[in-house]
Amino acid sequence: MYPTASPDFQPLAEQIKAWGMELGFQQIGISDTDLGQAERHLQKWLKHGWHGNMQYMAEHGLKRSRPALLQPGTHSIISARMDYLPESPKNSHAILEDQAAAFVSRYALGRDYHKLMRNRLQKLADKITAAIGPFGYRAFVDSAPVLEKAIAEKAGLGWIGKHSNLINRRAGSWFFLGEIYTDLPLPADQAAGNHCGQCKACLDICPTQAIVAPYQVDARRCVSYLTIELHGSIPVELRSLIGNRIYGCDDCQLICPWNRFAKLSAEADFQPRHKLNNSTLLELFEWTETEFLQRTEGSAIRRIGHQRWLRNIAVALGNGAANEVSKAALQGKLHHDAELVREHAAWALQALAGKVASDTT
Asked: Where does cob(II)alamin bind (predicted)?
């Protein structure tokens, strides 16, 4: 058993931060385990039902907001961030303005970040062990009920913006987070202050108006939820608002003025694969299930499966130009084995027919 947090652990805390930088993290911070404010915010969010069908957000009792319940003996939390932006935001804007192009959230263009960050956190824990001997810890990368953004905010890595993402004054918001829960009594860093001010650009830009108020996001309307988390049919009233976004949405980050300070990632694993940053909707709509599985191997995209992939692209095609090539591609999916695909292909054809009708009147 270690003593209560003490200045004696300050040198170790500084060494941990230095090791983190050596391992490729852009910043390391340390927080205590008091997440009472975040717990109240989470309970309010759940009470509104804004988590939709993400039942895992309501499970595990209070383990999400009380770290010691998840990992007994936790005294301090080491929080790490890693930049992932693979290319200039100019390309994102260009894709969103091109109805024929497919937009994939920038975090998913390369390999799945979970394994890479988990390995780096393990190496950090190994360095600590080599320096002080065995200690109690457990590493997480979006792999358990952890309030990672609230923890990172307390650890001084940034503040939670009005869009609910973490923002860093010197690095914007294009980064991943990971944590090490530990029984070490490390001194906590000063929590980050909020610098959103009067800005509400993220609220105004949200294509589905999912940010219902500052710091309050109704996930049921969020494009990322609709294209990734939602397993069934996308609500009809929201389909036309999705545009050409087929996996996630970055609009609130692209508009955020703090992202002018964001830096491109040097990690090879985060670089675009299979031209996912420069593909048309029709090209991706032609992928068979076998091709989908091959080209999304090691990618976060694979988790939605081929049927939801086609569902999303069908909606995007329905939001595009009413040309014969798009119509033919959609008609080819009217006899797909999955009702989910047939339904959204039929909707898209109806949407395109409506555009033709309006153009002739």
From this structure: 64, 142, 166, 177, 224, 249-250
Stretch (H or E) spanning 39: helix 36-48
Whether residue 142 lies in the annotated active site: yes
Residues contributing to the annotated binding site for [4Fe-4S] cluster: 196, 199, 202, 206, 222, 249, 252, 256
**Cβ 317 vs Cβ 347: under 8 Å:** no
Tokens 């898209």 sit at which residue?
A: 348
Is residue 84 a contact partner of residue 175, using CB atoms and an 8 Å limit?
Answer: yes
Q: Which own/partner contact pairs does 209-214 have at CB distance under 8 Å and 24+ positions apart?
A: 211/162, 211/163, 211/164, 211/252, 214/162
Binding site feature residues for cob(II)alamin: 64, 142, 166, 177, 224, 249-250
**Model pLDDT for residues 193-219, shown as the tens digit of each residue:** 999 999 999 999 999 999 999 999 999
The domain spans of the chain are 7-98+108-182, 218-258+279-359
Residue 8 to residue 124: CA distance in whole angstroms? 20
Catalytic site residue from 98, 142, 189, 359: 142
